Each structure stands twice: as C-alpha cells, then as structure tokens.
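Here's what a typical entry looks like (Alpha/beta fold hydrolase):
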Amino acid sequence: MRIFLILIYTALLGSMPAMSSPFRFTQEHELIAQQSVIEAFWQSGEFASFKSYDQLDIHYALFFSPTNTQCIVVSLGRSESYLKYKELIFDLANNGYNVAIIDHRGQGLSERELTDKSKGYVGDFNDYVVDMHQWLENIVKPKCNHDLFMLAHSMGGTIATRYVQQFPQTFNALVLSSPMIAIDGGHIPDWLSKAVIKTSHFINALFTEQSAYFFGYGPYKEKVFAGNDLMQSEIRFQLFKQTYEQNPQLQLGGVTFSWLNSAIETEKLIFENLADMQTPILLLQSEHDTVVSNVKQLHFCQQLNALHPQSCPNGQPVVIKSALHELLFEKDEIRNEALNQALTWFNQHGQN
C-alpha cells in the first residue's frame, strides 16, 4: 500500500523533464506499472556461481542479447546484491547493452567467510579483485568479445580501481559512481581514524580469527526512509527494502575491524599505483555524500588527471548536485543525469 501511495503522489506532482538525451530510463511514476515487465525481462537472465580460489561460492548474473555487442560489467557496493539492481539492468539492456553483474564475496547471494554470516568481512580487498578477474576471464569475456565497460558503485569502485591498476587493458572505459576511494570519517581527523582502525584490528586479531564488528556496528537492522543517507527516491527505497525483506539471505550487518583495516590499506595502494591506470575513467560524485569521502575523490581525480589526462576531465569529478550516496537509485532528475553521464562516457570510448 505504501508503494502505491508513493506512486500516486509522484504522478500528481509530475516528473521533472528529462534532459535531452538519446537514452531512455525508467521513471519513478512508471515503476509500479513496470514491475511485471521488469520481472519478465529478469527471467531472461543467466544465474549461476563459480568457486573462488579459496572455494567460496561466488554468484553472478548475465543478461546477454544477440542483438547487443557492447557489454557493461557492474561492480556493487558493500552489502549489495544483484537482486537490488533489477531496474538498472533493465534500463541498461533497453539502451542496447549486455550486462554482467557479480555479488562480491561475503555479501548478497555469495558465500560468507565467517561463522557469523551477518558480519561485513573480508580479509584482504584484493580477494575481491582476484574473484573479479577469475569471473571476467573465464565467464564474461568469452561471451563479450567486443567493447567492455565497467560501472562501479561505492565499494565496487574500490574494487574496480584496483582491478584496472592491475589489469589496465581489460576495459574500454570505467565509470565510478560515488566510489569509496576512502571511507568518510566524519569530523575525526584522517590520521586518528586510521590509527584507531589499525590498532583495533591488530589487537582483535591477536584473540580471534573471527573478526569483531567495529565499534558501534552490529547485526543487520531494517532501514527506514526518513533521514536515510542513501537515496531520496522513496519508491526506489521501498522496493530495495522489500527485496531484502523477501530475501533475508541478502541481509548483512556492519563492518568488521578486518574489513576497515583492509579498506584503508587499499586506499594507500590506490594512490601509490595511479600511474598504472590507463583505462579512461569518469568519476561521478554525489554532492551530499556522507558515506564515502568526497575530498579523497577530488584528490584522486586531480592526481590521476595529471598522470592520465584522458581520465577525470579537467582533473575534477562530475558533481551530481543535490545527490545522496546511491546515484543509481536516486530520484529521477539525479539518476537520469548520472546514467546519461555514464552512458555518454561509454559511447565516447566504444569501438563499435
């Protein structure tokens, strides 16, 4: 009932006029009516898993059409699953792209590493990269032998950045959506937050291999729309919430000492290896992001553009005004702008 009320409210207000664009995306006022169409499209996907190097089940989905030649790989943020991304995959396919999307280890439908399945854990962020490489080389690239792009959100942006540093010839272009170049420590100085994380992780690891939740974090809690720091589209928020209610295996709690420690180690590696990044990169920044560090995104773009002028034009992120963290689930005018920027970037760097 709540979703239907949101739909009526949105229709009464009317939608914002879309920017002139060759692309077409689903609009908020269409979402309920489109659910049956999106679900029918979803049945065309290929859903499977593979064994990682350390024998974890890593799940993925593929949406390939013989009429499409260009492919987009989607790298998800922390705690996300491809089941959350049905609207986006539907929109990308309708704009002529094949889509490949992976649930990173420790979240979504993929296998968790700790006894407590609710803990947000990884031992080393490079494990995400290794999984990605195995999947791309053995499953995705044999199916997509033309243009290959990547669209990466938040933690998925961390993974994508480290991936193109290690495998610079894989993608024609990369778009980072609110990437986690670094976590947002709020008002705590960067040096202090890193010292606390590293010290806490060291002490915790002395006593257990089952990394504990970081201070203030715990098991999964149901989110509410009011005051959330992710998105301003209530209908998209409610559909996301409904997906996690209907699929409790997707639910993931807060981060652990190990996850945070590896995140700050990976931030250091990102800045140390900027010279290796030959893939053209566009960074989309959410103006009002409180989840990841916009300051570190700016530093990343400035330093990357100085080394590789094809990336971060003018040494700046593209700032999406009024946006919260999840650009790909935001209200229409924000989401449309982000997706237009992304697909335009891919078009500029495609060969087909």
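Confidence is low (pLDDT under 50) at residues 1-19.

More examples are in the samples folder.
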